[in-house]
Amino acid sequence: MSTIFSHPSKGYVELGYILLAFLIYLLSLGIYRLFLSPIAHFPGSKITAVTGWYETYLDVYKGGQFTFQIEKWHQRYGK
């Protein structure tokens, strides 16, 4: 009977496939958000467009500054 534990390295190979699939997913999501999304043509920071971590950083570590940053972006890039 073959199981995942039948060979010591088999689990690592499957884990590698899972990680590869996850990386491909993240790459495709980034490409979609930068080039194919309906809001991709709006001006602004590309790193902010790709990920939500900048919002988390401003809200959690900077004490809720994301709302004020949005206002700054509107002044910089237009409304």
Structure characterization notes:
The chain is mainly α. It has 2 domains: 7-41; 43-79, no CATH class. It contains 4 helices and no strands. The protein has helices at residues 10-36, 46-50, 53-61, 66-77. The radius of gyration is 20 Å and the shape is elongated. The termini are far apart. The model has no long low-confidence stretch (mean pLDDT 88).
Uncertain runs with pLDDT below 50, 5 residues or more? Answer: none
Q: Please count the helical segments.
A: 4
Helix-residue proportion: 55-70%
Helix/strand class? mainly alpha
Structure summary, number of beta strands:
0
Gap from first CA to last CA: 64 Å
Mean pLDDT: 88
* Sheet with the most strands, sense and barrel status: none
Radius of gyration: 20 Å
Gross morphology: elongated
Beta-strand content bin: under 5%
Provide the domain count: 2
Element order: H for helix, E for strand: HHHH
Considering the chains and any ligands shown, give keywords for the structure.
single chain, 2 domains, mainly alpha, 79 residues
Explain briefly what this protein structure is.
67% of the residues lie in helices and 0% in strands.
Task: Please outline the helices and strands.
Layout: H1 10-36, H2 46-50, H3 53-61, H4 66-77
